[in-house]
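Crash report, auto-generated. Payload:
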Amino acid sequence: MTTTPNSPATGAPPLRIRGLRAGYGTRVILDGVDLYVPAGEIHVVLGGSGCGKSTLLRAATGLERPWAGSVELFGEPLDWTQGRPADESFLKIGVLFQGGAMISSLNVEENVALPLRIHYPDLPRAALRELAHLKLQQVSLDGAGLKMPGELSGGMRKRAGLARALAADPALLFCDEPSAGLDPVTSRGLDDLLLELRETLGITMVVVTHELDSIRAIADRITFLSTGKVIFEGTLEEAASGPEEVRDFLNRQPSSPGTASADVIAFHLES
Amino acid sequence: MSAPSTTLLTVPAAMTPAVVTDLSKRAGEILRGGGDVHLDCAALVRLDSLGLAFLTSLHRQAEAGGHKLVLHALQEAPAAVLAKAPAHPAEGEETPVPKLFEAVGGGAYALALEWKDVALLLSESLYHSTLGWRKPKTLLRGEAVTQMIRLGSTAISIVLLLSTLIGFTLALQSGLQLEKYGAAIFLADGIGISMITEIGPLMTAVILAGRSGSAITAELATMTVQEEVSALRAMAANPFQFLVIPRFWALTVTQPLLTVASALSGIFSGMVVALLFFNIAPQAFLNQLQGGVEIKYVFQMLVKSVTFAWLIVFIATVKGLGVRGGADAVGRAATDCVVTCIFAIVLADALFSFFFYL
Ligand SMILES: Nc1ncnc2c1ncn2[C@@H]1O[C@H](COP(=O)(O)OP(=O)(O)OP(=O)(O)O)[C@@H](O)[C@H]1O
Ligand SMILES: [Mg+2]
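Recovered output after restart:
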């Protein structure tokens, strides 16, 4: 089978980001971020809320134009002189957005089949429907195919978004918090699905997640972002002896406890 | 291997979209001809999701017609993938109205939406949807018609009502002045020309800016805020082609029609005023109108209305896709769109007067 995981030695890495700087307006969000993801790896991006994880994914998928630095997908640098490249080769990349990002005027089935249908309008409709059915089954969303996105719960929308991201059998999958808002059982099922996809299809993944159980289950390596910089990159075991902020995060402890009590107003109290 | 009457369709190494499209056509013919479908899968090494879905749907289609789908010499790896085919089809009926999508014409899509970017992208998308279309697929035909009905029909009653009222006021005021000189009959010329060249296009444009312009902005802004536009771009689709062009065509067609309706209702209203207040018979009014209104005025009306329609779509697109922030930004964008549209329309109208009457 040609779809076994490529060994990192052969071919270019699916994703390589160097010295990425990005932000909104004049505000710097990412300040010199490097990310290297070899083929077949599940790479988890971590960091506090609002630290720029989604921004990193947007830049990596060519949706946000970086201020500086380079993004290479499968060895090909994104060329920003032309805006975002819009061709079929982008079907190699699947993106699950944080909110699911279902097209609200299309039902779930149509949404899932959309990546292929846009580029190949001649495909038989029955096959596209079957494809949507297949993918929805994978994310245990069978039976919701004819619903409109507005009729789904947040977690269902997320899973529908994953089904759509998988529709064209991408070689590289970006997931922004796939299991946020899901119950533990469904969330576990999703982790298993990601692992299985990596096993069977060799899909490389970049996953943003806060769920510690999820990280332990799926992460080959993690990258930890803090104030716009990568402060740690390595395996989970290495993280145990990594920077304090990373250890605190993984042990679910607020950073530098104790400082909070020192910083309060000393009211003058009288009885 | 096969009976003389059966044809064996050869499957190549991978089931690409092109292969699926082709095989589906040929298999469909065989099934319609009343035969079983035989696929020679000896060469097939890679069965991806689309291929799996296609074989599954073909199998169901064949069984439903009392025929068989026979796979010959299937290798181990694709067979393992095939074992995952769901036994039961998806529930429910297929959506009846097919929506058509145009394949993306390699258009670039800028990130920071600026006026000139939108102008460029709009013209490029337009080119791809008209002169430049290479594949014989009309894009989003159903979608454009849907938008036409939505954007047009909601505005017709208010356009008619306001134009009638304005025609009434205008006819009465000018009639009273003209009557002093015993020239009340020229009311017909006055009303006809002003409704056709000025009031009709302007009123319609202002109403459509309020109704359709704000609706377009709100829709596009909502889609932007909810990352739907990003999702389209992530699929390497051009959001302009998908979202803006249908609305563009819808307004390009409906706005002139509504303008004609507006002018006609204003003139009718003037005719009634002439009869009731100035004793001018409808026949006399119409004769006078015919003498006074030249064909060039009608031409001006059409040019104006189409230009205004384009201004509305253009501004609504810039405001809608350029939105930044959360749900609150959607409302602001819509308001912003209406104000900008009305300003642009009045300004354009002034320029037109300058050129037409120079
Ligand atoms: N469109 C935007 N315009 C301006 N600022 C933005 C925009 N999107 C995000 N930001 C800011 O950029 C920062 C990083 O946002 P981002 O969405 O990348 O965070 P995140 O790490 O994904 O957070 P979370 O874990 O909550 O999803 C945030 O502080 C946010 O306020
Ligand atoms: Mg985020």
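Post-recovery validation: Chain A touches chain B through 67 residues (CB under 8 Å).
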